[in-house]
Amino acid sequence: MTAVATGLRESKKQETRQLISDHATRLFIENGFEETTIADIAAASRVAKKTVTNYFARKEDLAFDHQEEFVEGLARTVAGRREGESALEALRRAFLTGVERKDPVIGFAGETFTRMITESPTLTARLRDLHDRREEALFRVLAAEMGAAEGDLGPRAVAAQLGSTERVLFQRIMELTLDGQPDDRIAAMIADDARQVFGLLERALGDYAVRCGLPARE
């Protein structure tokens, strides 16, 4: 198969995946997540049920179709931090950048989608699981970066503190969204909240996992 043919095939697969995801989201919002079936999604997308499950192993994956980006996001940010930058500072910088972009990955999902999640016990449980997986991924990176010995609880404790901070901010965005606040207002409020909560960790974690090169602070 030529490179062009391979590229076209991959493009077609991505189009099909996006089509299924879009129809699923519409049906979830219109009818409720719990009430919508895979058969409903397949019919709306004009594909076989097997095609839907080939792209999305579980129905929850259709609602959280960017979950891998979410789960790995904190770990990637820490792994890619700048010289002289601590894990804390890298995550604070990345979060505030996400606020400026009103990034859905940090919680800017809109009132309709956010309400769909909070009204579904299945999706609420899945969101908790994704937060837990994100914290675990962050722990693994911190343990590797710090050369931690097996059984060293330091990286796990730090991951728990940083992960909880991100979780609290995510929940706050959801609350403000459901309260009907516009995104610009939410962004202004959550930026202040982020500076506050990350600042509370500064004394304990400001010098933790600083990338060698430049000094961490002046």
> How far apart lie the N and C ends?
56 Å
What is the CATH third-level topology name of the largest domain? Tetracycline Repressor, domain 2
State the shape: globular
Number of domains: 2
Q: Roughly how many Å is the radius of gyration?
A: 20 Å
Return residue spans where pLDDT drops below 50 for at least 5 consecutive residues: 214-218
The H-and-E topology, N to C, reads as HHHHHHHHHHH
- Architecture (CATH level 2) name of the largest domain: Orthogonal Bundle
Protein name: AcrR family transcriptional regulator
GO molecular function: DNA-binding transcription factor activity; transcription cis-regulatory region binding
Domain HTH tetR-type: 14-74
Keywords: DNA-binding, Transcription, Transcription regulation
Protein architecture, described:
With 218 residues, the protein is an all-alpha fold. The chain is built from 11 helices and no strands.
Layout of helices and strands, plus pairs?
Blueprint: H1 3-31, H2 38-45, H3 49-55, H4 59-63, H5 67-79, H6 87-101, H7 111-118, H8 121-146, H9 154-178, H10 183-200, H11 202-205
Helix pairs in contact: 1-2, 2-3, 5-6, 5-8, 6-10, 8-9, 9-10
